[in-house]
Design goal:
heterodimer; A: 320 residues; mainly alpha; MetI-like fold; 0% strand; elongated; B: alpha/beta; five-stranded parallel β-sheet; four-stranded antiparallel β-sheet; 9 helices; 9 strands; 36% helix; 21% strand; ATP binding (chain B); nucleotide-binding (chain B); ABC_transporter-like_ATP-bd (chain B); AAA+_ATPase (chain B); ATP hydrolysis activity (chain B)
Amino acid sequence: MAETGSTPEGATKPPPDAATGSVPEVPTVWRSPGAGTRARGGAARRGTRALRTRTSAVLVAVVVLTVLAVPALVPLDEQAVDLGSKLLPPSWSHPFGTDEVGRDLLLRCVYGLRISLLVGVVAGLAATVVGTVVGALAGALGGWADRVVMRLVDVFSSVPHLLLGVFIVAMFRPGLWPVVASVALTHWLSTARIVRAEVLSLRSRPYIDAAISGGSSRLRITVRHLLPGVLPQAGLAAVLMIPHAIWHESALSFLGLGLPTHEASLGNMVQAARGSLLAGDWWPTLFPGLFIIIPTLAIAGLAGAWRERLNPRRRSELML
Amino acid sequence: MLELHRITAGYDRRAPVVRDVSLTVEPGEAVGLLGPSGCGKSTLARVASLVHRPDSGTYLIDGESVRAWRHRAPREQRTAFGVVFQQPRQAADPRLRLTDLIAEPLRAAGRRTGAEERVVELAGRVGLSAELLGRRPHEVSDGQLQRACLARALVLRPRWLICDEMTAMLDASTTAALVAAVEDYRRESGAGLLTVGHDRTLLNRWCDRTVHWTELTQAENPSPPKNKPSGA
């Protein structure tokens, strides 16, 4: 409505010269009555997105700072047990309450989050590197190499992630690195697929023909033109992988296959709290649970914002 | 001499775009290839410049038969062709600055010394100002980018130039400038040219000889094989 109101005003303005004067009128031709509403809806959606991005950024910053600062200031004694103060509800001295052997839940949550983030980042990066290399090789080499690699990916994909992950951790003594390896080795598949598809699409671009004609070797084309082309996608895949890896670490720990049970891991804590939850003590379950959910959603929110920047035209399909 | 003989090529073996086409280009000759859109001109140009492997047919370069295309072709054979494509936007890696775009074939050949001067010299030839060389493809116009693509095609001093609708996207003055740059290069190097387009006037003025796509399947069969009774 506002636009149509302003149009006659613009049309009655004679001063602009004929050449440029005709330009502002062009939009009014195709601007339908619904355009205003659509624009407003778009603005609202943009506003929500900006808010989500900003909230996610703040949360991620808080999480990272906490995880770096608190362990440096307050040490955690894994073995400390104080049965006199077990299962205390949240209070000023224990904001998150205490667990079934009297340990402070807030401190354990922070330590657990630290381990989760470590696993998430390392496993996410490792999975992305493996996936990118495999996908780029398959895409760049093509032919039988591509077929063999992609069938291998299909085989791995046909087994549920968690099952394969359990199988991998079961081969080692419980600890941090088997968990990282298990998550990394089960999560490169989707990245490999994405990178391969991207490489295949880049490979048929005329600039690759130009590079071939310019005498570039296959290796040079891969390193100079194909890999830089898929790097933004791979980086995004790595960030999207972090929350996923964190959930897997928690799941493995919850199943008792992840970190040793005495260690402060969020999955371990949720597992240990099951008994007290049935008895009506909600805090040992709630707080570690929130510590798993909130940071991962914040990271996913940031990744979503990045994805929209990379690919603004497909924004609606890619909304998280 | 380039001799394409009974070439069949395309992107799907069951439905080739180019069927049984023959074409020769003498050394130093400029041949213009005319034809309607989608008839397979560009595919033939891609075959001639070794970036597309034909399904069948023979291709002789200076009497030597070509056995391999794309990466598999020997480097010297590939770089004997300077190729300019129709859409500069698609033919330029969006991440490379124009300097790097033009110097890329030199770097791929391991010739780093003197690359800088060569780029500046070529930029002058194709009419690119020094200030544009530091920009990336999205920061220049189609015409400027096509100038850079021509410079890239010339950087290794090819013996053959293949221009696939090089000027289709460009205005008259840029077209004139690019054609002049190509002709300058051909005068001093004696390179042969195969240029593809559908602007009859331009090709007639530019080339020694223009052929229409429809002529290629019949007339240009120098040594007609078994199934050619009418040609002789």
